[in-house]
Here is the input.
Amino acid sequence: MDVHPPLAKLMITLFGFVAGFDGNFDFKDIGKDYLEPNVPYVAMRMFPAICGILLAPTMFLTLKAAGCRSFTALMGAGLIIFGALECP
Amino acid sequence: MIATAFTAFAFTSFSNQQELGPSRAFGLSWWFWLAMTGLGLGMTVSIKWVGLFTIAWVGALTLVHLWVLLGDYKNVSVVSFSLDAHVVAMESANGSQRIFAKHFMARAFCLIVIPLTFYMAMFQIHFLVLQNPGDGDGFMSSEFQSTLNSKGMQNVAADVLFGSRVSIRHLNTQGGYLHSHPLMYPTGSKQQQITLYPHKDDNNLWFLENQTQPLDINGEPINGTGAWNNLAETPYIKDGAVLRIYHIATHRRLHSHDVRPPVTEADWQNEVSAYGYEGFDGDANDFFRVEIVKKKSKSGVAQERLRTIDTKFRLVHVMTGCVLFSHKVKLPDWASEQQEVTCARGGTLPNSVWYIESNEHAQLGPDAETVNYANPGFFGKFWELQKVMWKTNAGLVESHAWDSRPPSWPILSRGINFWGKNHRQIYLIGNPIIWWSATASVLLYVLFKGIAVLRWQRSCNDYAVTVFKRFDYEIGTSVLGWALHYFPFFLMQRQLFLHHYFPALYFGIMAFCQTYDFITTRVSGVGLRENPIISKVGAVAFLALSAVTFALFSPLAYGNTWTKAECNRVKLFGTWDWDCNTFLDTVSGLPDGVIPKRKLPERA
Here is the structure.
């Protein structure tokens, strides 16, 4: 049972559809072989990856908007890049 | 995450527009950023309910804005400070009241109406895309399920009569239909099992008989299952009627007696079984009285006599007074793990309400009045889904091998194990340098605020200094964001993971950078403002330090090869519980041997 509102799953579905994912892989277990059934995992992971990457420039712009110097804002963006090792 | 960040950005931009003064209010970029904030909130909350904390953050700061506006008597205020009731003052007060109302309405529209509309639109798309039944259907009501493809139902005859062949559904648990099959209880009376079964099946069909057989014109009883088919008077089943409920497939009747049920061995619960054989008249323990639950039944005739779907009723066992009951308790293997049905005594139990879903009778031809599930419509489905989500979320309480509680998050005492195989491992842990810096800057601000409040109480007039005031407001904004995305988790009983701290961390990093910016470029007296080179070198050095730390831990993020020594070198605390013994002494000689796979957390 999914306990979250639907936007994230809808976006993931949209990207899966665009990437040509056929819906025949169930993603039930982490570590399951996804190469054999030809899951277009690079394209499908691209969406969360882009979201994660956008986090850095967003931090930059937010700090700029909050009145910080460009240099500090740059540092903030850098901290996001090296920040949490894994960003969903 | 990106949605929260985007909201923070849009709202900060809006705050800037706001601070540019009344002349910029309601300008194009003012509206743009306000609307973007609303859109961002809508997106955030449509992804996870954590977005509600983001809404709280924006809401709190909006109240601050409005409060400032309220006091801005030159331009906006509703309060006229002129002491004499001068006509001009009155007029200006009216005018400013209008401006304040405009400010208020603009925010209400953009920050409440836009996110709510967006949120509901997402659910509408969700319903449109997902038209087919799936695994989660069992959580939803029958009305909800009947809107899904292939789960829809043909119309059913509305009136339930003596002699009707019906299926009887349990209202509260979505466990399914009252069911029996030719298998005996291994316990208690050892009679035939009664269960709840979720799928449509011939073993769900029951024949509703009156307490006694009807009489023909000679006063002789008419026997057989067709006995009620040709009576002069339509044999409606009225509230309070006593029934015998005959299982068509096995020729036994629903039966109860003072025997403990197989799983729930409570004193107030009796076993329910199917008892008898073909041609057997039955005994008094087969009698059940219909009690219509008027509050839950559709108004009109459905509250007076039994009607398909519209009437919700209890079945009271006449001899013992208990009511037919079922709950989310599964029977063991010998009943294929179907749901337990018992007869419960005492009180009005919500789990004792039933209704009839399918209904056939020879006297009800194709032109008889029919009913079907009412379509709940978008709002009905939307609201029901919200409730189910809330319940399910709150129900995620069992502990998990890698869960953690909020107090451990800011100090980064533990991560989450994702995957491990062939001497490689993926483990979620933050960059400790950045993590602790964020926490430290939050603590620093709290300390600052504490002293500031004390000094303010003693009228030290610090707030006259612009830098002081701005520091308090700007860092306070971020720290408030951190706090609102962190402290509510303390109230949650459900299982929580380190990744629930990420939104708070984002605000923590903002607070850290802002503090750094203030100390190095705005506060005079430290000596850094005059030497910008120092602050730049400092920032570069800190970034380099973070990058090196990242590089040291990165094999855990990417599942790269690692050696035991390299692993132990960065494992500073015992509570960082990835397992260095996973790795070999050297990176060559891979891959052999598989470490046991652990149960993985739900990525939420």
User: Anything to note?
Assistant: Chain B has eleven helices and 16 strands. Chain B has four domains: 1-129, 132-152+373-395, 156-371, 397-604.
